[in-house]
Write a structure and sequence with these properties.
This protein is of the alpha+beta class. The protein is built from 30 helices and 20 strands. It catalyses: L-aspartate + L-glutamine + ATP + H2O = L-asparagine + L-glutamate + AMP + diphosphate + H(+).
C-alpha cells in the first residue's frame, strides 16, 4: 500500500514543477514511509509522484514507482495490492512480456498493452487505486477498486488536473483552492455524504468501480467517468431456481477460503484484526489453518462492558492458538487523539471508535507489522447490520403475518437498544426522493437523515441562506444508479444503497484505510474479494437473514470454527462508548468543545452558528434529555468538532507550506529521485 499523486496540465508545454510533486508525496509520508519517486513526461505536461510502503518486492530501487514502460508509452502510479499476480505474471511472461521488477504494479502496463485498459481491469483482483497515462492517446485514467477500499481524489485547477490518494495531497499543490463547499459542510454535519463528493469545493472522489478519464481537446482537459464494475444484484425476475442450502454453503466456503489465503500473501509478516464478531473470527480460523506458525491477532478493548468484545475474542484466539495482543482503550485517550485522527480522515466522524482504530493501527505498527487481514464487508454482503434487517422485516417478508413482523421488530429493537438514535432512528422517517427511488426510505439512512433536521440551525447564517431549499436526501438519491435498484428485492436495494453510501465513505474510509494508513498499515478485507461478492449477490434473501439469525449462511458455513457463544450471538456493531456514558468521557468531550466550539473559534472559521452550537451542547449535557436523543446529539457534537478541526487543518493552515516543510524534514528532494521522460 502506498500514496500516489500527480498532475496533468491543460497545456502540454507547461513545465511540471517537480518540487510540487515531492511535497505531494511528503504530506502523505504516513502512507509510504519506505521511499518516494517522481517521474515527469516533459513533452506531455504530465507528472506522477509516489510514496512507498513496501509489501511486495522489498528491493528499494527495483520497486520504486512511478513506473514507465520500456517503450515509454505508459506511466503508472499505483496504491494497493493485486492478488493472484504471480499467475498473471507467469502467463504474460509466456506471451513474451518482460518484467523489470517483482512488483504486482507492473502487471497493469502489460495487461493494458495486450487488452486495453478496460480489458485489463477484469484481470485485476484486490484493493487498488492507480493513475495510468497513455502517451499514444494522450490520456490519463484514474481507477479505483470495485468497493473503494483505496481512496483517490481529483480536482481541476486553472493549470490542469491534480489528483492524489488523499485530499491533503491535492491541497498541497498551490493551484488548488482550500475552502469548504456549503453542501459539503451540510453533509459533514449529518454524517451521510453524497457519493463522489467531499467537504471541499471542487474536490471529488473517484467512486468505487469507476474510471475517471481525462483527455486533451483544443488545449483544454475534458473529464468523463465510466463505471467498469458494479454490484449488480439480480432483478427478482432474473433469479433462477433456488438451490439447496448445502450448495450455497459449500460455494461460499470454497470462495472464502481462497480469498483469505490470497490475502496472506506478502513479503512481510501478516497479522489479523480480531474482534468478538463472526467476521474476524471466521477469518482468524481460516488464517490459522492456512499458516504453519501461530497467527498474530490484534484486539481492541473498551473500558465499558456494554461495548467491550474482548471476552469472545480471547476465546477465539485460544481456540485457534493465535498469539493475541489486546489493546485496552479508555475515554481520555479517544478525545486526546481526536484532532490527530481528523487530519487523517479528512471528513467528520460520529463516533470515537475511529480514534480507537487509529490507536490500534499505531500499536500494530510498533509491534512490527505492516499488513493485517480484516473483516469489513461481511455485514454488507450478508445483511448483518440491524438497519438492513429492519428493512427486511418491514418490506421484504411478504409471507410473514403482522404478528411475526411485530415480534421480529421487538426483538431487533431490544437487542440493539444501545444504537437507538445512531444506527437505528428513534422514529421512522420518510424522505420523498429516496422513497420515490426505492419504494421506501432505507432504514440505514434514516438516523442520519433525521440528524439533518439539526443542521440548518448549526450553519453560519450565510451558509444557511445558500442552502435554504437544499434536500440532502434528494442529493443522495440523484447520485445513485436507479437502474441498479429497479426490480430488486427490498433487501438487495438497501444493501446496495448502504454499500454505495456509508460503507464506502465510513466503514472503508474514515474507519478503515484512513486510520490504518495513518500508521502505514495495509488492511486486506477478504470478504470484498470480487469473485466472492459476485456469488454473494445471487444468494436468496433467507440465506442472509433467517428467523432471528443474521448472516445465516456465514454462520452455517463456519459454525465448526466458531465458539458456541459467538455462533448463537446476534451481530453487535463495533462502536466506542458515547461520551454521555461516562463522566470522564463527558469531561474530555467538553474540554475539546471549549477549544474548538468556543465563540471565538466558531467566528474565526465562519462555518457554524454560535447560538445553534450552544443549544446542542446544553441539551446534550442535560440529564433529562432522553438517552436515544443524547446518542444522536453525541454524534452531532462529534460532527461539529470535526468540521472545526478540518477547517484548522486544511483551511487555516497553509497546506502547501506544510507539505514543503515535511519534504525537507524527511530529506526528500526532487534532485534525488526525479526522472524526466522525454
Amino acid at each position: 500500500m502506498c500514496g500516489i499523486g500527480g498532475v496533468m496540465h491543460h497545456d502540454p508545454a507547461r513545465p511540471v514543477n517537480p518540487d510540487f510533486l515531492v511535497a505531494m508525496a511528503a504530506i502523505q509520508y504516513h502512507r509510504g514511509p519506505d521511499g518516494f519517486g517522481v517521474k515527469i513526461m516533459s513533452d506531455c505536461g504530465v507528472g506522477f509522484t509516489h510514496a512507498r510502503l513496501s509489501i511486495i518486492d522489498l528491493n528499494p530501487e527495483r520497486g520504486r514507482q512511478p513506473f514507465v514502460s520500456a517503450d515509454g508509452q505508459y506511466m503508472i502510479a499505483h496504491n494497493g495490492e493485486f492478488y493472484d499476480y504471480k499467475r498473471i505474471r507467469a502467463e504474460l511472461t509466456s506471451l513474451g512480456y518482460r518484467f523489470r521488477s517483482k512488483s504486482d504494479t507492473e502487471l497493469t502496463m502489460h495487461l493494458t498493452d495486450r487488452y486495453g485498459l478496460e480489458g485489463a481491469l477484469p484481470h485485476l483482483r484486490g484493493e487498488f487505486a492507480f493513475a495510468l497515462y497513455e502517451r499514444s492517446k494522450d490520456r490519463l485514467t484514474l481507477v479505483r477498486d470495485r468497493f473503494g477500499v483505496k481512496p483517490l481524489y481529483w480536482t481541476m485547477t486553472p493549470e490542469g488536473l491534480v489528483f492524489g490518494s488523499e485530499i491533503k495531497v491535492l491541497l498541497a499543490h498551490p493551484a488548488v483552492q482550500r475552502r469548504f463547499s456549503s453542501e459539503g459542510l451540510y453533509h459533514q454535519l449529518m454524517q451521510l455524504i453524497v457519493p463522489g463528493t467531499s467537504a471541499f469545493e471542487g474536490i471529488y472522489a473517484v467512486e468505487p468501480g469507476q474510471m475517471v478519464i481525462v483527455e486533451r481537446h483544443d488545449g483544454q482537459l475534458q473529464v468523463k467517468t465510466k463505471q467498469y464494475w458494479d454490484l449488480n444484484f439480480p432483478r427478482q425476475s432474473e433469479r433462477g431456481a433456488r438451490l439447496a442450502d448445502e450448495e450455497y454453503i459449500e460455494e461460499l466456503r470454497s470462495r472464502f477460503i481462497e480469498a483469505v489465503q490470497l490475502r496472506l500473501e506478502a513479503d512481510v509478516p501478516v497479522a489479523c484484526y480480531l474482534s468478538g464478531g463472526i467476521d474476524s473470527c471466521t477469518i482468524m480460523g481460516i488464517a490459522a489453518a492456512s499458516q504453519q506458525s501461530p497467527v498474530k491477532a490484534f484486539t481492541i478493548g473498551f473500558d465499558d462492558r456494554d461495548y467491550d468484545e474482548t471476552a469472545i475474542a480471547r476465546e477465539m484466539a485460544q481456540a485457534t492458538g493465535a498469539d493475541q495482543d489486546v489493546l485496552m482503550v479508555d475515554g481520555n485517550q479517544l478525545y486526546d487523539h481526536f484532532a490527530r485522527t481528523l487530519w487523517h480522515t479528512e471528513r467528520s466522524i460520529y463516533n470515537t471508535f475511529t480514534v480507537a482504530k487509529l490507536l490500534m493501527s499505531e500499536h500494530v505498527n510498533k509491534a512490527g507489522y505492516k499488513v493485517v487481514v480484516t473483516g469489513e464487508g461481511s455485514d454488507e454482503l450478508f445483511a448483518g447490520y440491524p438497519q438492513l434487517r429492519l428493512d427486511m422485516i418491514l418490506h421484504g417478508m411478504d409471507d410473514a403475518s403482522p404478528e411475526e413482523r411485530a415480534d421480529l421488530e421487538d426483538w431487533l429493537a431490544e437487542s440493539n437498544r444501545l444504537f437507538k438514535g445512531n444506527l437505528l432512528a428513534e422514529k421512522a422517517l420518510d424522505d420523498p426522493a429516496l422513497t420515490s427511488l426505492v419504494g421506501f426510505t432505507p432504514s440505514c439512512l434514516q438516523s442520519w437523515l433525521s440528524a439533518s433536521a439539526y443542521v440548518p440551525s448549526l450553519l453560519h447564517p450565510d451558509r444557511r441562506a445558500a442552502l435554504q431549499n437544499y434536500s440532502p436526501g434528494e442529493a443522495v438519491a440523484n447520485a445513485l444508479d436507479a437502474d441498479q435498484i429497479e426490480g430488486r428485492h427490498p433487501l438487495d436495494k438497501v444493501q446496495y444503497i448502504w454499500i454505495k453510501t456509508q460503507f464506502e465513505s465510513q466503514v472503508l474510509g474514515w474507519a478503515g484505510d484512513r486510520v490504518d494508513m495513518a500508521n502505514s498499515m495495509e488492511a486486506r478485507p477478504p470478504f470484498l474479494d470480487h469473485p466472492l461478492v459476485e456469488f454473494a449477490v445471487t444468494l436468496p434473501q433467507n440465506m442472509r437473514l433467517r428467523g432471528r439469525k443474521d448472516k445465516y449462511i456465514l454462520r452455517e458455513t463456519m459454525r465448526e470454527l466458531l465458539p458456541k457463544a459467538l455462533y448463537e450471538r446476534q451481530k453487535f456493531a463495533f462502536m466506542a462508548p458515547p461520551s454521555h456514558t461516562d463522566p470522564v468521557k463527558q469531561r474530555a468531550m467538553q474540554a475539546l468543545s471549549a477549544t474548538y466550539l468556543s465563540k471565538q473559534a466558531i467566528e474565526e472559521a465562519g462555518l457554524l452558528d454560535v447560538a445553534g452550537v450552544q443549544k446542542i451542547l446544553q441539551r446534550h449535557s442535560d440529564a433529562n434529555t432522553p438517552v436515544s436523543d443524547r446518542v444522536q446529539l453525541d454524534a452531532i457534537i462529534n460532527h461539529m468538532l470535526s468540521v472545526q478541526m478540518l477547517h484548522k487543518h486544511f483551511v487555516g493552515n497553509d497546506v502547501p507550506v506544510v507539505a514543503r516543510d515535511r519534504a525537507q524534514e524527511r530529506g526528500w528532494y526532487a534532485k534525488d529521485q526525479l526522472v524526466v521522460v522525454a
